[in-house]
């Protein structure tokens, strides 16, 4: 299957046989993870001087890393203001989750039909790695690295549908990953999400395409409903068009 946009960068470590990353690569990865984990909050302004000191690099590699993050739409450059971390409105995020529910449900259906047995086993092995996370065992977080280390990404690739891969593994993927990690509204949700991943794999392995789609759609719908419930509780509104950064303070992270 041909690579979807920007997916080659997910495999840079493996493809180079473990060769040392460049300074720009290292800073890019570290800043991206800080954005995904909320250490650099949505809407926050990025100071090149502060970032250079924080990551111990000169301006050249830093600016290259920032350009790559802009390309992934994780940063936005505002004239006369500078660079800021992206921040979606509540409405934008909910719309993205509706799209994810439909498209990733279809990806799971197609994966049940087309994913080879060795790739299904690879999904099982991946979850076995995830299960070792102390944060997941304690019910605090469920962090997945990008690309081949991400359950959802693997299933989209396993669908063998290039259009789905381009739509779900390009620009949208990185914005979704940011909020997948940062939003959880129910105690124990990380472990519940992990269990849902297992059941989706079981449906794919049994070649039950209909059930795989149903389970994936329920999985993402549950995450969306948790976000909606959280906003109602914090704002007293049914559908606020508020910036998400304003309501993230007490949210515990998990990956959906």
Largest sheet: 3 strands, antiparallel
Alpha-beta content class: mainly alpha
What's the arrangement of strands in the largest beta sheet? 1-3-2
Count of strand segments: 3
State the helicity in percent bands. 55-70%
Describe what this molecule looks like in 3D.
This protein has 256 residues and is mostly helical. The protein contains twelve helices and three strands, in the order H-H-E-H-H-E-E-H-H-H-H-H-H-H-H. A three-stranded antiparallel β-sheet has the order 1-3-2. Helix 2 packs across helix 4, helix 5 (90-114) crosses helix 8 and helix 11 (189-205) packs antiparallel against helix 12. Mean pLDDT is 80; it is low at 1-20 and 238-253.
Short account of what is shown:
This protein is mainly α and 256 residues long. Helices cover 60% and strands 4% of the residues.
Topology (SSEs and partners):
Elements: H1 12-15, H2 23-36, E1 45-46, H3 48-55, H4 59-71, E2 75-78, E3 82-85, H5 90-114, H6 117-131, H7 134-137, H8 151-158, H9 162-168, H10 171-182, H11 189-205, H12 209-235
Antiparallel strand pairs: 1-3, 2-3
Helix pairs in contact: 2-4, 5-8, 5-11, 5-12, 6-8, 6-11, 11-12
Features:
single chain, 256 residues, mainly alpha, 12 helices, disordered N terminus
């Amino acid at each position: 299957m041909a690579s979807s946009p920007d997916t080659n960068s997910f495999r840079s470590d493996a493809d180079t046989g473990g060769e040392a990353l460049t300074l720009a690569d290292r800073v890019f990865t570290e800043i991206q993870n800080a954005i995904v984990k909320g250490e650099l909050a949505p809407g926050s302004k990025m100071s090149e001087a502060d970032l250079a000191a924080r990551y111990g690099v000169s301006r050249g590699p830093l600016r290259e890393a920032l350009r790559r993050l802009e390309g992934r739409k994780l940063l936005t450059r505002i004239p006369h203001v500078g660079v800021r971390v992206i921040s979606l409105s509540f409405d934008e995020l909910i719309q993205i989750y509706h799209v994810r529910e439909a498209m990733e449900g279809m990806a799971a259906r197609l994966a049940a039909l087309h994913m080879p047995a060795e790739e299904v086993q690879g999904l099982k092995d991946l979850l076995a790695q995830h299960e070792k996370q102390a944060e997941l065992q304690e019910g605090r977080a469920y962090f997945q690295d990008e690309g081949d280390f991400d359950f959802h990404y693997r299933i989209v690739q396993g669908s063998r549908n290039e259009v789905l891969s381009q739509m779900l593994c390009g620009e949208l993927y990185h914005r979704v990953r940011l909020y997948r990690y940062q939003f959880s509204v129910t105690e124990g949700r990380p472990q519940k999400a992990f269990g849902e991943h297992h059941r989706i794999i079981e449906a794919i392995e049994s070649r039950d395409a209909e059930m795989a789609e149903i389970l994936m759609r329920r999985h993402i719908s549950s995450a969306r409903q948790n976000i909606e419930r959280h906003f109602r509780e914090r704002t007293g509104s049914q559908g606020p068009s508020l910036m998400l950064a304003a309501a993230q303070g007490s949210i515990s992270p998990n990956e959906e």
